[in-house]
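Technical annex, item 7. During the second reporting period the consortium partners agreed on a shared format for inverse folding records so that results from different sites could be compared directly. Each record opens with the tokenized structure and is followed by the designed sequence. A conforming record, contributed by the partner at site C, is shown below for reference.
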């Protein structure tokens, strides 16, 4: 398998591993669908992530800064989360079902100064930013009051920042027994462990086309499944829950990442990797 049990020496982040593998995969299709862009190859994915990382650094992102990721589809999620990690930052996934006060509370609690979003979530993103420490809202697509993701891409390219195994790779917020949201950080070492388990439990390869519903849950298992599919060389296709069956036919899908509650007419011919919602 391409992911392996342990990352190579000096490459402790998923992003470093993905970008290194992407160079060898060249024009093999990596992403399709979603608002981020048209279909892109692995080589284009790596180039976009490195360029966006340079743009984020130019805008003031420093190592270990937390950046909110509040996006409506898997393609945006991949580009946002890996660009943030490549620049040394920590993505904090923001669940789409949260209220504006809850989003603002999460962003304020983790000290985020930047937020990546996209229509149709951009309006709520801006409202939450006004109630938190966020000063820059960057959008995949046009939305008044935001900067476009494309403006990040003209500042050169940045090689992914090296991290220690115990550094935080992802900062999800989970619902606690009292109903409040609380941080549940995931280290690079823990993320590698999650991916190692998926090597055994959720095997996919470069011939697979994996449909991915929009981000769901607190982001932990969703992130691991998305990254696992890309590390294994699959094509990841972003699709809304009500279009999964149509998208499966259009792209000849072989597997699906979605909430366990999602009903899909094509389910009988797809391997389903369920994410807790």
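Designed sequence (site C submission):
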């Amino acid at each position: 398998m391409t992911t392996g049990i342990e990352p190579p020496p000096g490459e402790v982040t998923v992003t470093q591993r993905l970008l290194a593998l992407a160079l060898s995969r060249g024009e093999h299709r990596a992403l399709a669908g979603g608002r981020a862009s048209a279909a892109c190859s692995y080589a284009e994915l790596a180039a976009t992530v490195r360029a966006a990382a340079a743009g984020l650094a130019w805008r003031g992102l420093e190592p270990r800064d937390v950046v909110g990721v509040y996006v409506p589809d898997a393609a945006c999620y991949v580009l946002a989360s890996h660009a943030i990690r490549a620049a040394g930052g920590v993505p904090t996934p923001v669940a789409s079902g949260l209220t504006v006060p809850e989003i603002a509370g999460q962003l304020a609690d983790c000290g985020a100064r930047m937020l990546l979003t996209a229509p149709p979530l951009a309006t709520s993103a801006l409202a939450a930013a006004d109630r938190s420490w966020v000063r820059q809202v960057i959008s995949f697509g046009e939305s008044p009051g935001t900067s476009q993701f494309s403006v990040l891409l003209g500042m050169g390219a940045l090689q992914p920042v090296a991290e220690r195994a115990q550094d935080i790779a992802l900062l999800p917020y989970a619902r606690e027994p009292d109903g409040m949201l609380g941080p549940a950080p995931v280290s690079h070492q823990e993320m590698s462990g999650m991916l190692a388990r998926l090597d055994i439990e959720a095997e996919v390869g470069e011939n697979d086309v994996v449909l991915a519903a929009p981000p769901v849950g607190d982001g932990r298992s969703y992130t691991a499944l998305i990254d696992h599919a890309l590390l294994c060389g699959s094509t990841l296709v972003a699709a809304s829950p009500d279009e999964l069956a149509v998208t499966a036919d259009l792209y000849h899908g072989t597997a699906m990442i979605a909430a366990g509650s999602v009903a899909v007419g094509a389910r009988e011919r797809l391997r389903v990797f369920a994410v807790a919602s």
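The longest strand covers residues 66-70. Residues 1-10 have pLDDT under 50 and may be disordered. All partners now use this format for quarterly exchanges.
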